[in-house]
Amino acid sequence: MKAIVLGAGKGKRLHSENFMQPKVMREANGKPLIRYMLDTLSFIPEKDIVIVVGYKKEYVIANIKGEYTFAVQEEQLGTGHAVNCARSFFSDYDGPVLVCYGDMPLFKRKTFTEMERIHNETGADCTVLTAKIDRRIAFGRIIRDENGNFKDVVEQKDCNEEQDKIREYNAGIYVFNSKILFDSLGDLKNNNAQGEYYLTDVPKLIMARGGKIATYTITDETEIMGVNTPEDLEEVEKVLKERN
C-alpha cells in the first residue's frame, strides 16, 4: 500500500498564521501534527508516501526529514483537488492507496493495517473508514442499504430528520485502488456551496461505475479527532498525554 497525506491547509480557524506556520506543522505535545500521522504510517516505506503541501510549502518540506515525496496544491480547491495534485506520482502504480490527513494525529496503526487487509480480502475498489459513536457529531452520516451495504455519505448539513439520527459517521479516510481513484477524480464536480471538489463524492462515483465499496468501522472516537481550532488542539494534547 502507498499513501497520500493531505497537508496543504492554512489553518485559519487555528490562527496558524499568527504562529507563521502551516496547520500541519502546529505542535501538539511537542511534536508537529503531521509527524504523528507519518509515525503511524511508518509501516509504509517513506518513498511511497506522498505529502500534499500548499500554504507555506517550503516550511513543511524543510522540516519533514526523510524520503517522502511532496506534491504541491497551489490553490486550495477541496480535498478531491488536493488528492488529484498527487496524480503524477501514481501513473505507473495500480495498487491500494490510503488517503489521510496531516491534521488528524490520533489514528492508530491497526486502523490503517486493518483497512488494507479488508480492502485486499474483499477485492474492493474503495474501502471507507466509518466510526460508530453514540453521540451526535458534525460528520457526514453513512447511509446503508437494506442489506447493510454502503450506499452513500450525507453531510450533516444535508441530512433529513431520519438521517440525522444515524450514529455511524464517515471518518474521511479511504483506501482506494489507485487507477480507479484517479479515473474517478476526473469526474468530480464542484457544484456545491463552496465550489470545491470533495473526496467524499468519489465512493459514490465508483459505485455508479459498478465498483465495489467495503467499509471498516472503529468505535474509538478519539481517533477521528482533527485539529481545526485552538480548542481542538487542547483536546488532542490531552489525549496524547493520556496515551503516554
What's the structural blueprint in terms of helices and strands?
Blueprint: E1 2-7, E2 27-28, E3 31-32, H1 33-40, E4 49-53, H2 57-63, E5 69-72, H3 79-84, E6 96-101, H4 109-122, E7 126-132, E8 141-144, E9 150-154, H5 161-164, E10 168-177, H6 178-185, H7 202-208, E11 213-218, H8 230-243
Parallel strand pairs: 1-4, 1-6, 4-5, 7-11
Antiparallel strand pairs: 2-3, 6-10, 7-10, 8-9
Q: Care to describe what's here?
A:
This protein is an alpha/beta fold. The protein has a single domain, classed as Alpha-Beta Complex (Spore Coat Polysaccharide Biosynthesis Protein SpsA, Chain A), CATH 3.90.550.10. Helix content is 28%, strand content 23%. It has 8 helices and 11 strands. The strands form 3 sheets. The chain has a 7-stranded mixed sheet with strand order 5-4-1-6-10-7-11. A two-stranded antiparallel ribbon has the order 2-3. The chain is globular. The protein starts with a strand and ends with a helix. The model has no long low-confidence stretch (mean pLDDT 95).
